[in-house]
Amino acid sequence: MEYVSCQRGVFALRPTILSVSTEAVAANARAIRRHIPEPVRMMCVVKADAYGHDAVRVAKKLLANGADAFAVAIVEEAEQLRNAGIKEMILILGGASEESLRQAVRCGASQAVYTPAMLDILQDEAAKTGVPARAHLKIDTGMSRVGVRGEEDLAALLTHWKRRCPDVQMEGAFTHFCVADTDPEFTGLQNRRFQAALSAIREAGFAPIAHAAATSAMLDPALQYDMVRPGIGLYGSCVPEMAGEIENAQTLTTYPIRLQAIAAGDTVGYGRTFTAKRDSLIMTLPIGYGDGYPRLLSNRASVLVKGRRAPLVGRVCMDMVMADVTDIPGVTLSDQVVLMGRQGDERITPDELAELAETIPYEIMLGFSSRIPVEVTD
């Protein structure tokens, strides 16, 4: 028995949509703010299009819900926020080319710096344009990614800054913890290194805003300093201490394009990796790894139909996946299917999908391709 989809009159295009609720992000920000002491500022991380949630709309929403500043990865992201009318502090966290350093000055963004050469470029652009440059000194305390490392190099950089770069304001000094969620001993070592760096910075006559804690460390009073940098937590993940207080802001839905009864012993999909142990009803859905739905979810993940879980069967294809809906009575081609999000009392989170796909929820949130339309609501 085969059913053919007749949804064209309802859906002009493929009926797969990623819905984003900026109000959910705002509610998460309010919840986080309740856990952060009032003197501590909150720099909300909106890099990578706010982790796939629409950076401009999210940033504007966050301004009314606890954000004091924003962090991005590249100057283009800072420019996008400035062009949208956001005037608050914007820190560019990543390394930069000469032109991007100059553009950071021109658009009034703060730049992470860690070498004298970066400071010289900022100073030169500030002198040329008459626009003061702002920078946050990045301290490498053990991440081994970017930042000034070691007492000698820090001392040399501070001396260079004072003598050669009068038009570059040290607005902040910061570090990044690499195992705050798993290794308190190493995090403590990183924190002590940061404290030593801050002492040297202040002894040299600077008075920057100090910040170190991203999502995994932001609830620890010993790591909060003057400001915290919530990122993934704003979008509903990676804060187990706040389970029930924060909610994922993305919902991925579709509608079936086929329902097919198969017999016990029949196989499903490429490689015949699933064999039906009983007569079964198989639902085909129009989404696949070409849309960013990970192939590693083959025979692992579930979808929600009528508020119940239906396991994926067979390999995730480029454009389609199949689910076993045998145990869900009354399934039709008109039933909305949730691949990520809530339906009834059930929920599939980015964290769940990440664990099954052997990755992290960041990659799930950011991984959907432009083939999936995004619907952002306030």
Concise summary:
29% of the residues lie in helices and 25% in strands.
Record the SSE blueprint:
Layout: E1 2-4, E2 17-21, H1 22-35, E3 41-45, H2 47-52, H3 55-63, E4 69-72, H4 75-83, E5 89-92, H5 98-106, E6 110-113, H6 116-129, E7 133-138, H7 151-164, E8 168-174, H8 184-203, E9 209-214, E10 227-229, E11 250-254, E12 258-262, E13 267-268, E14 274-275, E15 280-285, E16 302-305, E17 308-311, E18 321-324, E19 337-343, E20 346-348, H9 350-356, H10 361-366, E21 374-377
Parallel strand pairs: 2-21, 3-4, 3-10, 4-5, 5-6, 6-7, 7-8, 8-9, 9-10
Antiparallel strand pairs: 1-12, 2-11, 11-19, 12-15, 13-14, 15-18, 16-17, 16-19, 19-20
What do these coordinates show?
The chain contains ten helices and 21 strands. The strands form four sheets. The protein has an eight-stranded parallel β-barrel, surrounded by five helices. Strands 2, 11, 16, 17, 19, 20 and 21 form a seven-stranded mixed sheet that branches. It has a four-stranded antiparallel sheet with strand order 1-12-15-18, with no helix packed on it. The longest helix is centred in the middle third of the chain and has 20 residues. The chain is elongated, with a radius of gyration of 24 Å.
